[in-house]
């Protein structure tokens, strides 16, 4: 596991205590979880995935004092458009993601260093994800979705699906079973029960939660702008993202007008009354 020092930043423009809870449309239990979260882990396949899929929500949470940690599974070494940049593309993309995380307010970025395009569920990778979950003990884990969206194969890159499957297998039962990956317990990483998975970039029909990110649109776009190696037409990218945020907002039901939203499939892993065995 390659880790990089935490970048302590805040994108807050006012004290967290002065900010209202995030507005949401959909599952009321998931919305309540957003109000109570103190630590969130975000898993994604390539540098920039989180900034497209959940960057606004991350920025909103960070402004409210939530500790957010990113985990990038691949190095994004198959990305970009310039043959001459191949030798340097890994460090370029890592630097871009570190800077984007700083803008969003994430506390740290962990790189697992897998090869872009080759990501697949394995016990080695699941164990590394379980270790991160047990180390940070988040109330919410964000991840790419493990199911293919036939309406957008671009959204369902095979690495995205693999990331979602790895995280889902880690979330249950492995993270809460001390007899799974027993070497972790020997390292002091005790099992715990994860309350929520928030999955993004999944099939439209799975969406059950929309989060108002109107306050963070500029932050989200600034974070995306950092990924210069991936955007042959930055303005077209920005307009596409703005349109997606508007469409998501228009699809929700809100108590007050909302102009930008991000979508999730919120899954309660462990809640009141949950009974589970292994």
Automatic annotation (TrEMBL):
Gene Ontology biological-process annotations: glycoside metabolic process
A Pfam family it matches: PIG-L
Name the record gives this protein: LmbE family N-acetylglucosaminyl deacetylase
Keyword NADP listed: no
Molecular functions per Gene Ontology: hydrolase activity, acting on carbon-nitrogen (but not peptide) bonds, in linear amides
Keywords (A to Z) from UniProt: Zinc
Domain of life, per lineage: Bacteria
InterPro entries per record: GlcNAc_PI_deacetylase-related, LmbE-like_dom_sf
